[in-house]
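Tutorial, part two.
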Amino acid sequence: QVQVVESGGGLVQAGQPLTLSCTASGIIFKDNSMAWYRQTPGKQREFVASINRLDRINYATSVKGRFTVSGDDAKNTVYLRMNNLKPDDTARYYCNIGGNIWGQGTQVTVSS
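Running the prediction step on this input gives:
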């Protein structure tokens, strides 16, 4: 059974960094694309960043230059390093594997 667990969320002040982790079990991490999405109440879930099997990386325009996605195959974990956080980054962040497997999310709240 595949399980995906996100961690690392919390409350930070604007300008502070935060790193999220997503660890998967029951699946071969390196054979799948990994992505981060985020969602705020009343809005659709939106793409944040992704990394695929060829290490091709994509970012949403709103986070490019501030966020960095990376993976550790040995740990079956993907990270999202978020620098210079803004109040608009406040959301629940979700990890997605292979396009159809989701974690429960981790809350990030950025205060001004």
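The longest strand covers residues 18-25. In part three we will examine how such features are distributed along the chain.
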